């Protein structure tokens, strides 16, 4: 007997199927490319711990926003706060239009861009990077084309505020270079440690 089930599954519908027959609560630990609410809660907690508040922040999501379920879940949680959300991704990895519309309808949508410009970096309180996941691509040529299109390195971080954080749900590929690890604004290892 258990009091709850934490389920992580590659099928987007697995959580609903399990909840329909379970006699105990089902906690979504990630379902396909759809959601990852437990990561979203950790990310919200990380922002609070690192910056002291969530209200009135500018949060910029960078990378794979189409399949980035951590981004989808955090955006869902952010509806409860006064924040501005910027979206930076290659066109082929743009956030699904329905999610963009929800953010727009809430009055939270800032910039939607295919590049991470110095202006976007400079106004961001949080930059949240995600990796481009090879397994999400049926066309490997497209993967090769976009996998390194948005990279955060020390040069990019020079445009960032002194008080901001760089987050990443990990693991990473090359979207955040190892040289950034030494920057005190790089919060991703602290982000992971908060989950333990």
- Lateral arrangement of strands in the main beta sheet: 5-4-3-6-7
Average pLDDT: 92
User: What separation lies between the terminal Cα atoms?
Assistant: 24 Å
Q: Given the helix and strand composition, which structural class is it?
A: alpha/beta
Task: Work out the helicity level.
Answer: 25-40%
Shape: globular
Please outline the major beta sheet.
Answer: 5 strands, parallel
Radius of gyration: 17 Å
Q: How many H/I helical runs?
A: 8
H and E order: EHEHEHEHEHEHHEH
Task: Tell me the number of strands.
Answer: 7
Strand content: 15-25%
Give start-end ranges of low-pLDDT stretches: none
Structural key phrases:
two-stranded parallel ribbon, 33% helix, single chain, alpha/beta, 8 helices
Structure description:
The structure is a single chain. With 196 residues, the chain is α/β, with parallel strands linked by helices. The chain is 33% helix and 18% strand. Helix 2 crosses helix 3. It is globular and about 55 Å long.
Give the helices and strands, then pairings.
Elements: E1 5-9, H1 14-21, E2 26-31, H2 37-51, E3 57-62, H3 69-78, E4 83-88, H4 97-105, E5 109-113, H5 118-123, E6 126-129, H6 140-146, H7 154-157, E7 165-167, H8 188-193
Helix pairs in contact: 2-3
